[in-house]
Amino acid sequence: MIRGIEAFTGSRHFRLNEVAEGVFAAIAVPGTGSLGNATIVDLGDATLVVDTFTTVQAAEDLQTAAEYLTGRKASYVINTHWHSDHTCGNQVFVPAAQIISTSITREIMDTFVRNRITQQLAKPEAIYDAIDELDEKIQRETNEKLRQEMQWDNASDREYMKMLPDLVYSLPNLTFDQHMTIHGSKRSVELITFGGGHTQSDALVFIPKDRIAIMGDLVLSKHHPVLMYANPQQWLDILNKVEQLDIEIIVPGHGEVCSLNALHEVKAYITDLLEIVTDAAQRNENLDEITVPSAYQDWFFTTYFKSNVQSIYEWIEKSGKSRTDQRQPND
């Protein structure tokens, strides 16, 4: 029997938001072992979970919530992309659940991410040194908003490092390349990838019956998008395609449940940064002097802005060289 969220004892890692009957967003609580959002979907005869948080402890709470709300443990888990705040909780759900991702996401998890975890376990002092260094910066920071965000970042990193020795990194065992549908007795969900924008490969979960899209980090609500591994032009192209779907509600990778307006804001952010950085590069200006545009000063993840500027610059440089390399001698 399905029970309401009011009676769930809760988790320090997330807050539940009933997006539609049988669809529950688990909104991350900053500074805990979640970091990114997750979603629980009751398919009628099975339960689906989208993304699994940063730590095993947060994922255990997510599994408990899924079982409480739907009457069963998860049968399917979707990883929207390879970042740790969407995948490190996978071990909690196996072997009972099928773990699903795109083929490219699984390949990255099995190579780059697995190697990174091995290095972190071998030399944890490097991360602890970075935590200590950020602690010192926090003490000197006078901007209260930025100070709070830095404290959340460090708290999340500590949660991750505390969990790391117990991590059994669990890969997807079912992959797709373009589209996949899971049919339930109550609702069906479509797994869709239009390629890579935020990462080398991003998937979204579309629930046609409820007009809901669970977007991973392709859409964030009032948070700076993270552009470290991004292709900004492909990201914009993907969002343009998502707009063609019949969507009313979005569960973002970070931030509160939102509408298509958040998607439009992410498009504006990426477009604005492309224009600002291109202009600065053409004028040979110092990138460090670029400040957060007023439209985005209230957004969270402010600490990513400087690295986003650098990532955009590097992408512009790489794209320009690529176009030059493709020219014929007589062009």
TrEMBL record:
<dbReference type="InterPro" id="IPR050855">
    <property type="entry name" value="NDM-1-like"/>
</dbReference>
<protein>
    <submittedName>
        <fullName>MBL fold metallo-hydrolase</fullName>
    </submittedName>
</protein>
<feature type="domain" description="Metallo-beta-lactamase">
    <location>
        <begin position="35"/>
        <end position="254"/>
    </location>
</feature>
<comment type="function">
    <text>Counteracts the endogenous Pycsar antiviral defense system. Phosphodiesterase that enables metal-dependent hydrolysis of host cyclic nucleotide Pycsar defense signals such as cCMP and cUMP.</text>
</comment>
<dbReference type="InterPro" id="IPR036866">
    <property type="entry name" value="RibonucZ/Hydroxyglut_hydro"/>
</dbReference>
<dbReference type="Pfam" id="PF00753">
    <property type="entry name" value="Lactamase_B"/>
</dbReference>
<dbReference type="InterPro" id="IPR001279">
    <property type="entry name" value="Metallo-B-lactamas"/>
</dbReference>
